[in-house]
From TrEMBL:
Protein name according to UniProt: ABC-type multidrug transport system ATPase subunit
Keywords of the record: ATP-binding, Nucleotide-binding, Transport
One term of GO molecular function: ATP binding
Superkingdom as given in the UniProt entry: Bacteria
Pfam families (UniProt xref): ABC_tran
UniProt KW Hydrolase keyword: no
InterPro entries reported in the protein's UniProt record: ABC_transporter-like_ATP-bd (IPR003439), ABC_Transporter_VariousFunc (IPR051782), P-loop_NTPase (IPR027417)
Keyword Magnesium attached: no
């Protein structure tokens, strides 16, 4: 089965600071998933990159 969403080794830098480093994620049809983590962990940034509101630095 092929994933409907796939991120491989995604990185996001803001200025000189790396916000997200080496993020990989596969989501398959019918799956329910969530992003959990403390404040400032990059959950919102990850969603913004997935929907195209924020660019990816490197992948």
């Amino acid at each position: 089965m092929k994933p409907i969403l796939q991120l491989k080794h995604v990185r996001k830098d803001i200025g000189k600071k790396t916000i997200i480093h080496d993020l990989s994620l596969d989501v398959f049809a019918g799956e329910v998933f969530g992003l959990l983590g403390p404040n400032g962990a990059g959950k919102t940034t990850t969603i913004r990159m997935i929907v195209g509101l924020m660019g990816i630095t490197k992948f």
